[in-house]
Amino acid sequence: IIVGSVDGRVRIYDLRMGKLHEDFVGESITNVCFSNDFQSVIISSSDNTIRLIDKTSGQLLNDYSGHTHSKLRLQAASWFDDSAVISVCEKSNIFIWDLIGGNIKQTFKLPGLAQTLSLHPSRYQLITGDTSGKINLWITKGEKDPEEEEGAKSMSCWALPPR
Fold it and tell me: What is the separation of C-alpha 111 from the centre of its chain, rounded to a whole number of angstroms?
């Protein structure tokens, strides 16, 4: 079990071994998840930075910036092949960074502030839900689909009924 906290700590609980591993990041953590190979941890924090740390040693492997993230709980994750880190932004953008180099590979604008982000398990596609009431499917430049043009697209938007 992995947990991020507003006290700036990431805690990894090993229930079978009865152990707790804790790393101090410093800033309030708003989202935390494992990379797909489970060797590293992706940490979103309120200082406009996403960090990639080694799960075992806690060593900082890379950090990613350029997006706005200071007030809200925003999700971040990595592609199925761990080639990139993806995050939503408080200014209604999606950012994709190269996992190793840390440079921004792509950004695209959302119709509203994204509230959720989900990545396809085997393709370079993602779904976002945003405050405009739409669910958007995004196909990125990494996707090799002969029927589609290269580039990020918002497709199949559905308006959700008000609650």
Answer: 18
